Amino acid sequence: MPPPLPPDPIEPCPPPPAMDAALPGAVVATILSRLDVRSLLLAAAACRGLRTCASHALVFLPSFHLLEVALPHHLLRPLLPPNPSLRSLRLDCASLEDNAIGCLARSSLQELLLLNCNKISGRLLRELGATCRDLRMLSLNSLGEHRGLVVTFSDLQELLNGCSQLESLRLALDFSTFDDPNFGRAWASASERLSSLEIGYIPMTMLLELLTAVVEAQQCMDYVKAPVFFPSLQKLCLTMDFITDHLIGSISVALPSLTHLDLQDAPIIEPTSSSDLTNAGLQQINPHGKLKHISLMRSQEFLVTSFRRVNDLGILLMADKCSNLESVCLGGFSRVTDTGFRAIIHSCSGLHKLRVSHGSHLTDLVFHDIVATSLCLTHVSLRWCKLITDIGIERLSFNKDLNVLDLRDCRSLGDEAVRALSCLPKLQTLSLDGTDISDEALKYLGLGTCPLTSLSLRGCRRLTNDCIPLLFAGSVKQSLQVLDISRIPSVTNDAIMLLARSRTPLVELRMRENPKIGDAAVMALASMQVDGGTYGSSLQLLDLYDCGGITPLATRWFKKPYFPRLRWLGITGSLNRVMVDALTRSRPFLHMASRGEELGTMLWDTYSDWYRHNDDDLDELEQWLLDGEPVSDDDTAMEE
């Protein structure tokens, strides 16, 4: 039997079947219900049939997480129809105002995370208290920071009174706006289930007022019926003006169940003996032996100062009572030496995370006999510890489970330290900003076995263009997603061209304040293709702020179809205001930073669980959000 003849090329092929004919609607709905929000919107952009199914799926989604773009209210409202199944909502609210509060405060919610609430007033707190009675987790930041907006104490009261099921509350706000004679007593109405409380900033006087109310309630519970404050609280994170002995003692008495204590102060004047932390205060930490995490940090944001009244004796006394600690963060302990830091490492057998900043007396000796410990450190940060050298890091590298290592501004570190680290089998994040490494160090990393996903080399002034091919000569090319090569004077356009040729699928690239980076670097990145994707497809963040060779010509390369996934762009605002504004209008979901601010947000890493896709369909997503439906007439006719 002769084979069938091929179809006549002149005859048109029959149109493919419509979506509902190819797959039952129930099957499509089941598939779409398994997708995250971003994937669901991308599917809706494909054709009319999927758009209809996606619209139905939005009514039943249990979670809506969209932190990568800040949608205005008129675009967000259609994506959040009435949905009794919605339990979790996470959004970037940079483009939202008070008229969106009704869209955010939903009675079915159990988890709510809102970033950049600058343009929303305190009415949001009031509405959440009135509507979200079953809310378990609430996280807000920057609420009401826009000029003219008000956040009042009564707003906070309504939130605490209404959300009686809260288990985790994070308000990254300035609590001085809530100053009121009843501030302390108002917390008696907070949820008894509250186990985690994080406050952006609270003045010392208000904090002590709250703790005093808690202690008084505990003392009179035996003979009078008194309100119960924080019966389940285990995690407390606060920022205040001063950390003092009195504060530490009050926390230890008022909150005996704490397992996680995180305190940071930022003095604007030099603390006196009565308003500072001393050895006596450290003795009062962890009287019940329940603490697993302790963080005591003194910020130098307003004043160059430290915990001058704490020495090795205080740390030794604290370590003796805190042997169960798994995480320790100490910043600004300028009089503590290797003796104190070594006591923590050797006393806490389960220590996994260690952070020391501005340890001006910390040397290699702190790790001299680290092999005598359990060697279970996974996260280590030694920022501004200028006396640590290659020898200390070589000994630290005996911890084979190291996953995150921050050595920023350890100026005595060189190539041999990196050589020791290059063979760590689990090291994913490495920060070497301001160290004394050369291209040889990058050669060690390139030939090493550590599965790096993030590498920061900012301010490593000895590096040259040769560091790029050396770094990407080995397996790092397959794993690296985040790279910072800012403030390296010798890096030029040639280095970026070498990077583009390597086709490394970087997600974030920072190269700010490099005088020899110019338009050619932007053109090379815009033309780079990764695994057959579109031009510049993998980059989501690109920081070019104050690069000396950037001209107005560079802005043309940020127009479509180039850099389809770009969400953060740093560029000098004075470059050409008209062209920068035009770019902002053509790409409304692109976060433009033109004043030198750092790009990205740490909260994405901490709270969001959105998946990093490898597709290049963000242009279609934007078009669907802005225009409604990117389906051509031919496609529509074919489906019908």
From TrEMBL:
Family matches, as SMART domains: LRR_CC (SM00367)
Pfam families named in the record: DUF7885
UniProt cross-references to InterPro entries, sorted A to Z: F-box-like_dom_sf, FBXL15_LRR, Leu-rich_rpt_Cys-con_subtyp, LRR_dom_sf
Domain of life: Eukaryota
F-box/LRR-repeat protein 15-like leucin rich repeat domain ranges (all copies): 75-574
Record Gene3D superfamilies: Ribonuclease Inhibitor
Annotated PANTHER family: F-BOX_LRR-REPEAT PROTEIN 10, PARTNER OF PAIRED, ISOFORM B-RELATED
Protein's UniProt name: F-box/LRR-repeat protein 15-like leucin rich repeat domain-containing protein
Taxon lineage: Eukaryota, Viridiplantae, Streptophyta, Embryophyta, Tracheophyta
